[in-house]
Each structure stands twice: as C-alpha cells, then as structure tokens.
Amino acid sequence: MLEIPNDSKVLNPLQNELALYLSGFTPSDNSAYVSLFSKISDISKPQLITLNYDLLIEKSLELLQKDIGNNINSYPQLLKLHGSSNFMPDFRNININEISAFGYASFIETDDIKVLKHHEIKPWVEKYHFDSSPVMCMYSKDKRMITCPSYFNMAKKEFINKVSKTKLMIIIGTKYTPHDKHIWDVILSNKKSRIILIDPYPDNDLKKFINKKNRRVKKDEIIEKSFSDSVDDIVKIINTEINKYEKKD
Fold it and tell me: Of 146, 165, 184, which marks where a domain is finished?
C-alpha cells in the first residue's frame, strides 16, 4: 500500500490543492443553503456548525447580504470544527520561504489565523504552495491538522460548549462514524437535547439511539429526505423554536 511521506513539501501542496478545489464551489440562487437561510425568521439565533471545508455556507449568506462571523462576537455564528479552506496562518510581517519539515505531527503554528475572502485564497496558495497550507484537518481517521493544530483544540472546546448547552440539534448530512468520538461522544452525551436527523439513508444504530432518546416526543425526529427536499421541514422546526423563545423574552 502506497504511503504518503510525512513531509511538509508533499503534504502542504496536497492541502493547498484541496483548498482551491473546495473553495471553488459556489451556491446557486435556489440552492438548499440559500433557500434555508432565506426562510429562517432570524438567522442570528441558530448556532451554525459545519464539518466541511468549503465556503458554501458563507457564500450563501453573502448572496442574501447577511454577514457571517467565525467568532463568538459575530452573527450569524459559524463554527468550522475541522477548519476551513480559507483559514490561513497569520505570518504578520515574517517572511516565510523555503520552510521544510519532516516527521512532525504538525509543521507550523502561529498566534493568529486569517480568514480570507474567496478571491484571496489562490494568491495565498501560490505564494506559500510548499511552505504552508490552510488550517484544516487532513482527510484521515485521526483528523490530523498540520497547520495551527491549536485551532482544532480550541474548536473542539467550543463545540463541546455549544452542543452541551443546546436543547435542539438538527443534524444534516453528517454520517455516523463511531471513531469520530470528538463529534458523536459530545452529541450523544447531551441527555436533554432533542435531536433531529436529516438523512435519506440514516445509519441504523443512530436511528435506534435517536428513537429511544426522543421516544417521549411524538414527532418525526428522523426525516429521511435529502437536504434540498427537507428545507421546509427544517425551516418550520427552527422558526417554531425561535418563536417559542421570543415569546419567553
């Protein structure tokens, strides 16, 4: 079996090419994301969390002229647990050139991370092609992050904080993989939250857990439809929750 060398000159270009590819995806005006966000009564209320590296959520909100933030002081809030194709190490005024690392768990760590606009990604990648790469986990079982791994540690803590406090989770298109303990152990340990799963082909073990967990709620908690086909279902659930809490206020 061919093994990829643990070499920054090999892994950085791979991550950079992946970032360019994923950041190139653009939503249409009638895409599922755009349709969903346009129908939510107050987009600042839900906490958005994604495992994806692409910019479809950000671009969809931009189409709707809604600002997006990647920190706790911005609304709507978006937590990208595994990093993003537009998260870059902030080198400030330091000249980074001809950096090489071999055999390390990670290659570069910086104090801050820059969030680039889509059009800024390609010039950055061309400049640092071999020397660095975006802050995003590799496609591997251990979710290794070779650039700024402290981000992943911070994001996992924020994920635990958000998920442990919520009373409603809507999970869309995330497949149940038991080895992703940093995701599923956190989700399934919340005993008070109602879980709604959107998946046309849900995992049987996850279905059993959700049905058992939510048996006191006489509602459809597993919606076996695609994301695009379930937009109106999701909107109804979210807007009902928003209205409920607005009445309390």
Answer: 165
Does 239 lie in the same domain as 172? yes
Residues 6+ apart with CB under 8 A from 51: 81, 82, 174, 183
Question: Which are the contacts of 112, defined by CB distance < 8 A and separation ≥ 6?
Answer: 90, 92
Separation CA 84–CA 155 (nearest Å): 12
Say how far apart CA 7 and CA 213 lie, in whole Å.
45
- Measured between alpha carbons, how far is 57 from 33 in angstroms, rounded to an integer? 7
Closest of 102, 57, 106 to residue 79, by C-alpha: 57
Q: Is 203 left (phi over 0), alpha (psi -120 to 50) or beta?
A: beta
Residue 62's closest CA among 31, 16, 21, 18? Answer: 31
Q: How far apart are CA 174 and CA 50, in angstroms?
A: 9
Same domain for 249 and 215?
Answer: yes
Q: What is the model's pLDDT at position 72?
A: 43
pLDDT per residue over 41-68, tens digit each?
A: 988 888 999 999 999 999 999 999 887 6
Q: Is 171 helix (H, G, I), strand (E, B) or coil?
A: strand
DSSP assignment of 132-155 equals ---SB--SSTT---SB-HHHHHHH
CB contact at 8 A, 44 and 75: yes
Query: pTM to 2 decimals?
Result: 0.88
Which SS3 state, helix, strand or coil, does residue 35 take? helix
Same domain, 188 and 66: no
> By C-alpha distance, which of 229, 200, 195, 225 is closest to 212?
195
Task: Outline where DSSP puts E strands in 4-52.
Answer: 48-50
